[in-house]
Fold these 3 entries.
Entry 1:
Amino acid sequence: MNVTPTAMPAALTAPAANYTQASASDGPVISSDFETFLVMLTAQMENQDPLNPIESSDYAVQLATFSGVEQQVRTNDLLKNMGVQLGLMGMSDIADWVGKEARVAAPVQFDGDPITLSPNPVAAADEVILVVKNAEGIIVDSKPLPVSTDPVEWNGEDGNGNGLPYGVYSFELTSRSNGKHLSTDPMESYGRIVETQNSGGQLWLVLESGERVTADAVSALREAAE
């Protein structure tokens, strides 16, 4: 299966109202600030101590610092403009996500095919345990996993190797160190997307399990298994 990491949702889900486009006066303001900087730099040079002149490298550092700030301002304005555009075109962009599988920390539908899980243990952990719960929140499986971020497959069996019924399941990862509990966190798994929605400027995805998640909660996409 081809897995496609996606960095788009965070920008897509931001409503246009949250962004302020760069105004036409942004350019003149930056230009004015640069002229002020040059005046201050000239005054600094004229009034320096002749016996202890400022090093030319110091001027270069000041100019580079100002240029960096100016560039950052322009970059921020560009990102804001991009956010506006993505906010407007986001719904059409994610329309083709329907039918694909999204990696998200949410309950997913088990229909007999193994479910791919993406563990993310705490850095200090020396032991991790997979905890599987059914739709009622009852633990139906629990087993140790390698302390790794490598994907693992859950084949739909309980701790005794018995097949579990089709339905909605959620996954958690418990991290431990020296026998002490560190944390228990929701675990990302792949679920099929059946619908996209736009509600109040927020983009939502409806999974086959019936779970509704925001588009920015998706960390990866892949083609659904045949």
Entry 2:
Amino acid sequence: MSDFFGDLAPVRFDPEAEGLAFRHYDPDETVMGKRLEDHLRFAVAYWHSFAWPGGDPFGGQTFDRPWFGDEMAAARLKADVAFELFDLLGVPYFCWHDADIRPEGASFAESRSNFDAIIDLFEEKMEHAKVKLLWGTANLFSHRRFMSGAATNPDPDVYAWSAATVKTCLDATHRLKGQNYVLWGGREGYETLLNTDLGQEMERMGRFLSMVVDYKHKIGFEGQILIEPKPQEPTKHQYDYDVATVYGFLQRFGLEKDVKVNIEQGHAILAGHSFEHELALARELGILGSIDMNRNDYQSGWDTDQFPNNVPEVALAYYEILKAGGLGRGGTNFDAKLRRQSLDPVDLVAAHVGAMDVCARGLKAAARMLEDDALETPRRARYAGWESAAAQAMLGADLATVAAPVEAGEITPEPISGRQEILENIVNRYV
């Protein structure tokens, strides 16, 4: 145990409390026949919560954490503090990259030994804790060896190193009974075509993913394999730009039934989409797996990874998730970090508490909209014309047959209002 959080008590649901408390998130509240905790499946991100030093593109470390360092003792202290936070928040899940939890060794064998020791520690702690593993992943982007990518690297030695790293992390995720394994391709893309063989890199990436899927089945891992789309930053042209791009990639390599997506709100915005667009598209394509819940600063051009605080945005996201039947084995991972001026331990707790409340409010609003058919009734009315026999017949006819009644003067369309403002007003009644 550490004394990092001092005398902070576990956070409870108490709408009337003056201090740290959940005002909207009651894990046992039933919504649409399911406990709120089981809907939301909250997870703490190990990297931003415990490994991020508080830097930005123009300045370095602002956080002074007692576990910062390259020694195993520091990694063990970090784990102690992490599990204390999980307990304070009562979250059911957490997530990690390998580089978050262990110091880098002088060789692959040393790094793996460090990693295995922390996984041993996690396994021991998880036997006595509520928290479980939502997903594990490998950091294949921070170290200089990955400056030109991992699975897409022009150097086959880096490709092999990446394979060994993913194998190690997938083994550990399986050992800890993780619900998912995520492939986050932070540098799977290119800076310039002047030195890039685009076709070769995409083929290598497809083959790499196929190997991961094969290995999952070989070891009996029952969790989902997920790709996290991201359009840019740090790589200028990412091969996993957005949900649509990822789906096309999966189809090309015959993996659309084996791999789903972990969608982040901030990445959706960077791709020029809304979060709900990416969620709805993934639902319709059958590849919705899990979500990273954060937000970007709309005045900044990079991925600011802030904790969510916008209930209407969150409500529209969970609306699409509930329409999909929920998150299944996925969850709501807070891939979010404190502002670099938020130095105190209580800031880390308060950020998660506020975000969990925002998500609870959003999900409950989304559930009420669905239960009341507030949006689905007008949506069905807008497409009601397609229910007629004549309209259905068009879907099986050829082009000339469909065009014939128009050419004969029998059809003259009249525009019909989309009523967007009315629908926006309906949403606002719920949030």
Entry 3:
Amino acid sequence: MPTDHPIFSRWPARHPDRLQLFSLPTPNGVKVGIMLEETGLAYEPHRIDITANESHDPAYLALNPNGKIPAILDPNGPGGRPLALFESGAILLYLAEKTGQFLSTDPGARYETIQWLMWQMGGVGPMFGQVGFFNKFAGKDYEDKRPLERYAKESARLLGVLDGRLANRDWVMDEGYSIADISLLGWVRNLIGFYEARELVGFDRYRHVRRWLDQGLGRPGVQRGLKVTA
């Protein structure tokens, strides 16, 4: 374990033999917390307070030069060598392959799952995040309401895509609960909760998404994962 890594000068590891998680319970952060709780991997969490600009601390930037959360440092990476990773989607893929959980080994189903993970990262995350900005935060200072309308409309469209996908299945993938669901749960939860956009996007009309969200949030691993680094 590289205990001499600069990250540990700021956030010391009490259990250096465990996977180290550096995060905060944002929609991207909870993805990894949920995944770790669902898989049962031993890990040690470290809270990175982005409101205090801790993600731009030089010690953190040595781990993640992009200055965002989450990031991990696994002392037992491929070939037994330490591995540092940032980007929540990449971390989900890594943990799925490391544990053999929540990602099908069937090539077709595997790539289809990754497709929906990329859809979340490229569409749902950025759009829902913009709705949060313009609906709840500094966006309210803008007289021009077209940005909010644009992002709300696109977020509603994305919810419609997800609703259609879930019309005849319990989870995003036919094979069952997967990293595709894990990647989405925190974002949909925040959209109608923390971002206060339930009415703005007409969420209640998406009955399949509502059922899926309730089902996902009812999982004990999800409940625990949402509280990691809180």
